[in-house]
Amino acid sequence: MENNVEKIVLKDEKGENIEFEVITKLDIEEEEYVIVVPTNGEEDEAVALKVQKNADGEEVLVTIEDEEEFNRVSEAYELLFSNEKMN
Protein backbone atom coordinates (compact mmCIF):
# COMPACT_ATOMS: atom_id res chain seq x y z
CA MET A 1 0.00 0.00 0.00
CA GLU A 2 1.29 3.46 -0.82
CA ASN A 3 2.59 5.56 2.06
CA ASN A 4 0.78 8.71 0.95
CA VAL A 5 -2.77 7.35 1.37
CA GLU A 6 -4.56 9.54 3.91
CA LYS A 7 -8.17 8.37 3.72
CA ILE A 8 -9.87 5.17 2.62
CA VAL A 9 -13.49 4.12 2.28
CA LEU A 10 -14.58 0.69 3.53
CA LYS A 11 -17.95 -1.04 3.61
CA ASP A 12 -19.36 -2.06 6.99
CA GLU A 13 -21.35 -5.22 7.70
CA LYS A 14 -24.51 -3.44 6.46
CA GLY A 15 -22.87 -2.55 3.14
CA GLU A 16 -22.63 1.14 3.99
CA ASN A 17 -19.52 3.15 3.10
CA ILE A 18 -17.49 4.50 6.01
CA GLU A 19 -14.53 6.83 5.54
CA PHE A 20 -11.41 6.17 7.60
CA GLU A 21 -8.31 8.24 8.19
CA VAL A 22 -5.08 6.27 7.83
CA ILE A 23 -3.01 6.89 10.96
CA THR A 24 0.05 4.86 9.98
CA LYS A 25 1.31 1.94 7.94
CA LEU A 26 3.34 -0.78 9.65
CA ASP A 27 5.61 -3.42 8.14
CA ILE A 28 5.95 -6.38 10.52
CA GLU A 29 7.60 -9.69 9.67
CA GLU A 30 7.25 -9.12 5.90
CA GLU A 31 3.53 -8.33 6.26
CA GLU A 32 1.91 -4.95 5.77
CA TYR A 33 -0.72 -3.41 8.07
CA VAL A 34 -2.56 -0.11 8.38
CA ILE A 35 -4.02 1.56 11.45
CA VAL A 36 -7.17 3.55 10.68
CA VAL A 37 -9.81 5.53 12.57
CA PRO A 38 -13.30 6.43 11.33
CA THR A 39 -13.68 10.08 10.31
CA ASN A 40 -17.36 10.24 11.28
CA GLY A 41 -16.52 10.64 14.96
CA GLU A 42 -18.72 7.72 16.07
CA GLU A 43 -15.73 5.74 17.30
CA ASP A 44 -12.44 7.02 18.60
CA GLU A 45 -10.78 3.64 18.59
CA ALA A 46 -8.12 2.71 16.07
CA VAL A 47 -8.65 -0.34 13.85
CA ALA A 48 -5.78 -2.52 12.61
CA LEU A 49 -6.14 -4.08 9.15
CA LYS A 50 -3.86 -6.36 7.16
CA VAL A 51 -2.96 -5.56 3.55
CA GLN A 52 -3.27 -8.63 1.32
CA LYS A 53 -3.44 -9.26 -2.41
CA ASN A 54 -6.58 -10.86 -3.81
CA ALA A 55 -6.72 -13.35 -6.69
CA ASP A 56 -6.48 -10.48 -9.20
CA GLY A 57 -3.34 -9.12 -7.52
CA GLU A 58 -5.16 -6.09 -6.12
CA GLU A 59 -4.47 -4.94 -2.58
CA VAL A 60 -7.35 -5.45 -0.15
CA LEU A 61 -7.67 -4.74 3.56
CA VAL A 62 -8.80 -7.57 5.81
CA THR A 63 -9.44 -7.88 9.51
CA ILE A 64 -6.80 -9.64 11.57
CA GLU A 65 -8.35 -12.89 12.77
CA ASP A 66 -5.32 -14.40 14.53
CA GLU A 67 -5.01 -13.14 18.13
CA GLU A 68 -1.21 -13.49 18.21
CA GLU A 69 -0.85 -11.55 14.97
CA PHE A 70 -3.24 -8.86 16.25
CA ASN A 71 -1.22 -8.56 19.47
CA ARG A 72 2.02 -8.09 17.48
CA VAL A 73 0.45 -5.29 15.45
CA SER A 74 -1.04 -3.66 18.56
CA GLU A 75 2.29 -3.76 20.36
CA ALA A 76 4.11 -2.26 17.36
CA TYR A 77 1.54 0.54 17.12
CA GLU A 78 1.70 1.27 20.86
CA LEU A 79 5.50 1.36 20.71
CA LEU A 80 5.41 3.75 17.74
CA PHE A 81 2.80 5.94 19.45
CA SER A 82 4.73 6.08 22.72
CA ASN A 83 7.95 6.99 20.86
CA GLU A 84 6.15 9.82 19.04
CA LYS A 85 4.85 11.20 22.36
CA MET A 86 8.40 11.28 23.75
CA ASN A 87 9.74 13.39 20.85
Sheet with the most strands: spatial strand order: 1-2-3-4-5
Strand content: 35-45%
Q: What Rg, in angstroms, do the CA atoms define?
A: 13 Å
Specify the overall morphology. Answer: globular
Return the average pLDDT rounded to an integer: 86
Protein model, in words:
By secondary structure, the protein is an alpha+beta fold. About 25% of the residues lie in helices and about 45% in strands. The chain has a five-stranded antiparallel beta sheet, covered by helices on one side. A hairpin with an 8-residue loop joins strand 3 and strand 4. It is globular, with a radius of gyration of 13 Å.
Give a short synopsis of this structure.
This protein is α+β, with helices and mostly antiparallel strands. It has one helix and five strands. Helix content is 23%, strand content 43%.
Helix and strand layout, with pairings?
Elements: E1 7-11, E2 17-28, E3 31-38, E4 47-53, E5 59-63, H1 67-86
Antiparallel strand pairs: 1-2, 2-3, 3-4, 4-5
Which key features would you list for this structure?
single chain, 87 residues, alpha+beta, five-stranded antiparallel β-sheet, 5 strands
